[in-house]
Amino acid sequence: MSFLRFSVLVATAVCLSTALATAKSPNMIFIMADDLGYGDLGCYGQTQIKTPRLDQMAAEGLRFTQFYAGNTVCAPSRSVLMTGQHMGHTHVRGNARPGNRSIQSLRDEDVTVAEVLKGVDYTTGLIGKWGLGEAEHEGYVLKQGFDRFFGYLDQTHAHNYYPEFVWNNDEKLALENVVKRVEGKDPQRGFVGGAATKRIDYSHDLFVDEAMKFIDAQKEKPFFLFLSLTIPHANNEGFRLTGNGAEVPDFGIYKDHAWSDQDKGQAAMITRMDGDVGRILDQLRELKIAENTLVFFTSDNGPHNEAGHNLDTFHPSGPLRGIKRALYEGGIRVPAIAWWPETIAAGGTSDHIAYFGDWMATAAEMASAELPPNVDSISFLPTLTGNTAEQKQHEYLYWEFYEQGGRQAVRFGEWKAIRQPMKTGPVELYDLSRDLGEQDNIASEHPEVVEQAKKYMDEAHTPHPNWSPR
Prior knowledge:
Layout: H1 3-22, E1 27-33, H2 52-60, E2 62-64, E3 67-68, H3 74-83, H4 113-118, E4 123-129, E5 148-152, E6 165-168, E7 171-174, E8 178-181, E9 194-198, H5 203-217, E10 223-228, H6 236-242, H7 261-286, E11 293-299, H8 311-314, H9 329-332, E12 336-339, E13 348-350, E14 354-355, H10 358-367, H11 381-384, E15 397-401, E16 407-412, E17 415-419, E18 427-431, H12 447-460
């Protein structure tokens, strides 16, 4: 290399380094729906439910086609997202039963994305559903790196869209929702074990309003907002009372459709959320901070069937097999849209294979923060910025699930393997490049691939005293 060329390269590197050092750190907003399926959005093939703002977000940003949740149910999926560790390593590996919530709490030694970003002077906020530690636990949200909290601590409390209170930082904020306890069914829906005599404060609306207040208050300095929505999760207890767990103030544009009320409610919830995501994007533009803000939208796991709606009406898993609680693609592959004007090229589609755990490395790289040790995380920032040649890949992605006898799954290349019961059961093998719907188990044709899958599963799984198949 000539001295002149070397000098030019050094000067260029110095300029780039100076630019990065002086540039304002980008804001990050991670919006996560609850139980939204891969096929629930128009930009992923949905034809019945209208999602114009999320479709617009995809048209203006980048749509991932092979992005995965941390797990197939909510608490462990959130644990993977927060810690950057896959299911064989993260501490919270399941939804704990009521009365034993302590095992569903992060520990002091767990390092969250919020703590990493707070360490480099980000203001951090969690609006919506936490589910990884209540007020008396080590995993309490304000002990895990978040400066601001507004929402639900307990996941069962989060089933109710018209609660009597929500948490406002470390205080309970009473809402104007009055409950009269009655026997039998509740024709108005919405309350655990009772009928609503007054329903004013719809929690989802409160969360979006609080998120927008947080953004406005923090617009002059770097912030990380985790907007953990509850839509379209069912009110499970409401369903047991009324047969309809799709709790929404009105059916909106679907009120005259020839659908069941359950289907109308399910669609109305998603469209309501869609419009609210649009409101946030509009706000960022109005505040003139859109170009310095990454907004990432996804879902915590696959779609549910707990609201009484008909899965055949909307096909929420799209072309995928399975729903929530399955480790087939429909239970863990989720919609994912990244929006960052002037940084992410508009209208792109990425087949990069990533998962919730990668948010840790991505956020750390964006903020020039140091990664904590022992994470299973690869930054997908090169994919966001169009530098795909620099994008690192996982050797494999791994999941495990402890309910229904337990099961494990691993994705490596185009291969997908599932073992159920976990650790001891037979292995199913699918080639996703030609069998996206996982209909053709070809394990008997590829014994060497099955052995490789078993090796990955055994390597990834670390036993945990709190979690065993049930």
